[in-house]
Amino acid sequence: MFYRPEDGHGLPHNPFNALITPRPIAWVSTKDEKGVANLAPYSFFNGTAYVPPQVMFASTGIKADQDGTKDTVANIRASGVFCINVVEAAMMDAMNVSTTGFDKGVDEFERAGLTAAECETIDCPRLENAPASMECIVTQIVQIEGEANFVVHGRVTGIHMREDCLKDGIFDVTTFRPLARLGYRDYSIVDNTFTLARPDD
């Protein structure tokens, strides 16, 4: 089958997200100007550079109580900082709660039964007991084609790693089984890994 996105696909559900899988999930924590914490997952997410370490995530869509975007982007615009928390399989239910479109004054940490902790290098909450958290200073917010599509880029200024996730000096994802996003409403758990050496190693 072939289709042009502008003409529609004719299927029961949009297949686009299912083509880009699995996608890591950035559980992004921020704080608004009144000090209310926000926590929301974004699966258009990845690292973009090693030195200095940099990350990006994309936000799409609008909330009625924000000015042309969602709480996360609005908070980052105001504060200039954010924290990306790694989602483990054991936290999937809490992560799902945080997908709810709560009013902007609602603390998703509280609603999901989670505990916020202070970051070390930025004025922002992070998720206590997450397998890892990356404290970030925003470097740019780029509006891309389409209504309310924003790509947020940040430089990582501090990294927290849970001690039980470190095995022989390696951050071992099998110790916590990362949650990954597939298409539609589908997810996957990373619990099987293998090593593949490059031909020129």
From TrEMBL:
<dbReference type="GO" id="GO:0010181">
    <property type="term" value="F:FMN binding"/>
</dbReference>
<protein>
    <submittedName>
        <fullName>Flavin reductase like domain protein</fullName>
    </submittedName>
</protein>
<feature type="domain" description="Flavin reductase like">
    <location>
        <begin position="18"/>
        <end position="173"/>
    </location>
</feature>
<dbReference type="InterPro" id="IPR002563">
    <property type="entry name" value="Flavin_Rdtase-like_dom"/>
</dbReference>
<dbReference type="GO" id="GO:0016646">
    <property type="term" value="F:oxidoreductase activity, acting on the CH-NH group of donors, NAD or NADP as acceptor"/>
</dbReference>
<dbReference type="InterPro" id="IPR012349">
    <property type="entry name" value="Split_barrel_FMN-bd"/>
</dbReference>
<dbReference type="Pfam" id="PF01613">
    <property type="entry name" value="Flavin_Reduct"/>
</dbReference>
